[in-house]
């Protein structure tokens, strides 16, 4: 493949990835929902108080993500447009890192660099362009998925460097472990990272027909995961913060494997839903078709494994591993950002087996982008922007409030029925956040 053609693919990949999330940069896309709570929290907390090395609760103990939100707040205040520009930039960096990591994965099997390149483009294309998986990009409160994916992909890239570069092996290992730690302190779902490395190394052993010890970086990261999981289990068993036994609570967790499988099927339907819209699970014909294709593909992958062709089966295992941490939360089926990397890897593994697949690669990129016009994505965008417009109007009302005397109570009238406005969500926390950030509003 010529250098010119590779450049065209890169330009197309990043252009379509940007266009698929471009609406999120609109001035109509304001802070929403948990954004208000997080802006209030970080505006009133120091960096030192936000960080702690080990977890102290089972859920929402994510200091690195909180520190990043505080950085955005300190840098841009409540200018949500600038916040969203940063989020989109991180997404595009994740697209680039996905390309490099997947290309490295395929180097284990293919000596042809063109095949590895196409595989990286297809996987990064699905991840960066498929709109159903981009909830993590459009609002600050989802920074934990977005930023955690960034750290995890960096850890994976340095893992490959440590395995394939003799020089700076120790430094690469240290960087891998550092980024892995940053990922798990951004969101706990990235504790599965060493399991993904184990899958890769098992596939490597099968291809080489040679039994080897697991690499040092894999064993070390596995030890870190065991330690952190042990802490989380302890907190779960002995009533740490973030525990609930209310089965209707969004944060309720179950360890019933049957319910896990049921939740996994819901995630698959949500990923391929092109008709209903929204970021949470709903029954969908297109989603059911996507699920059926995945199940047929799983059967084919198992059949191929019996004939010593394991790559598709390992892709399915990677998808399952990438999402297993969130499966206990059966009342929240809405986050697909990180696992979509491995759905893209599965599609790329199929493409890599086709000779001269340039036409297929280009077609897939266009098909991925075509889904941005699907009814589900249109409905999602329209709903989100409509809510954001309510938020913006409420903010303007806040700005028009006469400067109160310091310590005064602020009463807002006529907000009944206006759900998820700055006046409603979090008990009026946006009002406090805005006034605290603008001390000139306070009369002495």
Describe the structure.
This protein is mainly α. It has 17 helices and no strands. The longest helix has 27 residues, at 80-106. The termini are far apart.
List the helices and strands and how they pair.
Elements: H1 3-21, H2 34-43, H3 47-50, H4 63-76, H5 80-106, H6 113-129, H7 143-164, H8 169-184, H9 193-208, H10 216-237, H11 257-271, H12 285-305, H13 311-323, H14 340-351, H15 358-370, H16 375-399, H17 429-437
| Overall residue-averaged pLDDT value | 85
Strand residues, percent: under 5%
Number of helices: 17
User: What's the helix-strand series?
Assistant: HHHHHHHHHHHHHHHHH
Helix proportion: 55-70%
From the alpha-carbon coordinates, what is the Rg to the nearest angstrom? Answer: 23 Å
Give unreliable regions as ranges. 439-444
The count of DSSP E runs of length 2 or more, i.e. the number of strands, is 0
The shape is: globular
For the termini, the CA-CA separation is 70 Å
The chain-level structural class is: mainly alpha
Major pleated sheet: none
In short:
The protein has 444 residues and is an all-alpha fold.
Features:
globular, 444 residues, mainly alpha, disordered C terminus
């Amino acid at each position: 493949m010529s250098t010119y053609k590779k450049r065209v693919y890169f330009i197309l990949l990043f252009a379509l990835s940007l266009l698929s999330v471009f609406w999120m940069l609109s001035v109509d896309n304001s802070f929403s929902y948990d954004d208000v709570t997080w802006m209030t929290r970080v505006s009133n907390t120091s960096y030192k108080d936000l960080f702690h090395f080990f977890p102290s609760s089972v859920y929402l103990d994510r200091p690195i993500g909180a520190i990043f939100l505080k950085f955005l707040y300190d840098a841009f205040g409540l200018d949500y447009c600038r916040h969203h520009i940063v989020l989109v930039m991180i997404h595009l960096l994740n697209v680039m890192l996905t390309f490099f990591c997947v290309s490295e994965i395929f180097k284990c099997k293919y000596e042809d660099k063109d095949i590895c390149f196409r595989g990286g483009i297809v996987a990064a294309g699905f991840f960066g362009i498929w709109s159903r998986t981009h909830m993590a990009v459009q609002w600050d409160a989802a920074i934990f998925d977005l930023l955690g994916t960034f750290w995890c992909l960096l850890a994976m890239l340095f893992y490959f460097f440590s395995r394939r570069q003799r020089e700076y092996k120790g430094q690469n290992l240290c960087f891998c472990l550092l980024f892995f730690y940053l990922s798990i302190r951004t969101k706990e779902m990235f504790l599965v990272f060493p399991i993904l490395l184990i899958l890769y190394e098992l596939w490597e052993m099968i291809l080489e027909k040679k039994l080897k010890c697991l690499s040092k970086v894999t064993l070390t990261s596995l030890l870190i995961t065991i330690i952190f999981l042990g802490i989380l289990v302890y907190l779960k068993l002995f009533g740490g913060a973030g525990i609930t036994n209310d089965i209707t609570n969004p944060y309720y967790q179950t360890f019933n494997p049957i319910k896990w499988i049921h939740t996994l099927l819901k995630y698959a339907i949500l990923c391929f839903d092109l008709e209903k819209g929204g970021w949470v699970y709903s029954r969908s014909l297109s989603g059911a078709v996507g699920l059926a294709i995945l199940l047929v593909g799983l059967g084919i992958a198992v059949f191929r494994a019996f004939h010593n062709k394991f790559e598709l089966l390992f892709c399915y295992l990677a998808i399952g591993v990438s999402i297993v941490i969130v499966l206990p939360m059966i009342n929240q089926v809405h986050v697909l950002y990180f696992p979509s990397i491995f759905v893209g890897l599965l599609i790329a593994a199929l493409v890599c087996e086709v000779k001269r697949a340039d036409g297929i690669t280009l077609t897939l990129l266009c098909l991925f982008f075509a889904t941005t016009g699907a009814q589900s994505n249109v409905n999602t965008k329209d709903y989100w922007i409509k809510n954001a417009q309510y938020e913006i109007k409420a903010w303007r009302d806040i700005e028009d409030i006469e400067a109160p005397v310091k310590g005064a109570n602020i009463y807002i009238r006529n907000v009944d029925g206006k759900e998820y406005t700055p006046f409603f969500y979090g008990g009026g926390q946006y009002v406090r956040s805005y006034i605290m950030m603008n001390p000139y509003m306070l009369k002495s």
